[in-house]
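In this notebook, the sequence line spells out the residues, with the fold written below as integer tokens. This is how one looks.
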Amino acid sequence: MIFDLTFKVTTDTIIALLALLVALASFIYTWSFNRFKISISDIDITKFDGENFFAFSINNHSPRAVNITHVELISASGKIIFDNGFEPFSHMINSYYISDPFESNIVIFPNNSNTFSYYLNEYPKCIKIYSDERIHNHKKHQLFVISINDPDQRPNIE
């Protein structure tokens, strides 16, 4: 048996190819629209009562809520930095300067943010955010590098 492998362009073939292209475009659009997108903003570096105050906001730019499972502050030497426990109750001028570190899972709703604040012995070089969903490429974590040249200037986020 010999098979005839000639290809004839008919109206049916054109309609089928157009339907395939529309289906692929729809799939790509849906996939890209439903991806999680988070960012870091509003970084505040302040000396308060001789202590290093560090605050930042995690923003959810996604159309779905994202569950943040863990936040790590990483020093320039690669060590994880923890809140040093300083509480400025005796000098309370503004409730903004209360330490509010990440402690447990938190859900950030679509187009919302959540602010965390720490008193640290040294400022971090990176902030690493973990989620139970893929939030960056195919990873369940995202690393933000912070460039702090001068504590009196606004830091850059890369």
